Amino acid sequence: MSSIAQVQQQRFFDCILEIKPDQKRYGVKRQNQKSNSPLNAPAVATGNAGRTLLDIEQQAAFNRQAGVIAKQQFVEFTQAHLHDQVAEELFLKLGKFDTVASTVFNLAEGFPAVLDVLSARALTLSQLENLISPVEWLKEDLLKLVNQPQYRNKTPSGNFIKELKPAIGLLGIETMKQILPVFALKRSLPHATDPFTGFKSQIWQYSIAVALAAQRLAEETGENAFVAYCAGLFHSLGYLVVTRTYLRTYQQVKQAAMLKARDARDTELTDALDSLDADASFLNSCFAEFAAIISADLVSKWGLKRLPLSQVLDQVAEGVGYSGASRLTEIVHQAVCFVQAQTLRKYKLLDDVEELAWMQAVQLRPEHRQLLQQTRLDRLEID
Q1: Which residues contact 135 (CB under 8 A, 6 or more apart)?
Q2: Rounded to an integer, what distance in angstroms lies between the CA atom of residue 28 and that of residue 255?
Q3: N or C of the chain: less Cβ packing under 10 Å?
Q4: Total structural domains in the chain?
């Protein structure tokens, strides 16, 4: 990825994760400070034979300072070394791809075949019905949609629709191409993203916007609009997996550290740990390190036969400026950067000069930029 795109992407995720410019940042790279970590230091407890006199004196000196700055430094020190352990666990978990694919992220075996057949030029209602039927969550979501008043009222009787075929017929094949991939993305969202309370809705809106922007650019340039739409949508899968895995790992590591500190009656360390929460800057650095690769690997695991989605996302993971990128890959990069830029402009975090340099870096032509500015990217247009 070009340096401009990298910087602005970090700024974009800083924005939606609400990271302040002056906030201390924690990265995923381990620092060789483990031996000095309060999480690995000998326990602080009266009468503990494992503590040396020097250790006790050092702790007492800290207690005497008892100032806001001293306490804050200790908390930051504790957070940094807590994330050393989190990084180690996270590397292991994200490296076990089969575990990620089956437990952290799972759309059921039948979904890829549904996605694949949607790319076929000739597709009947019966074919689509037969493939959707075994995928229970997808069938349930589709029937729930068509039984909303705005759709049910289109039927002659206005009764509830209980069968797939009339549901598909009511919406139509082209609408299926829009909504079925979105149902999959929705199912992949974490249940909660606390303490990043706004992230879930932000990443959802962002993913939809990128998909629609990529689709519009593909339509304009004669590329496969469905591939562009799906690539734009599913490029976010890695962000969802990384977020869910990081939040789980952080809580597990923190809980283990707190139990150890409590057992040792180390009140200073216990209080410091209790005041900590998952760190947005660390999560952002994890996005840069893992998200694009995980998105590509997950889609590759689907084994799509018709839809060349895996190839596009593999190239997207290579970053902006990759010499082997296809036109579809370039379109996805352009859509990503355009949507990120629009978000930053909304929050007054990007000026005209920066935006122009960014769009030039991804070779988004002025007329295509104007086209996207005139396109509604905040929701699906479904009849």
Answers
A1: 108, 110, 111, 114
A2: 20
A3: C
A4: 1
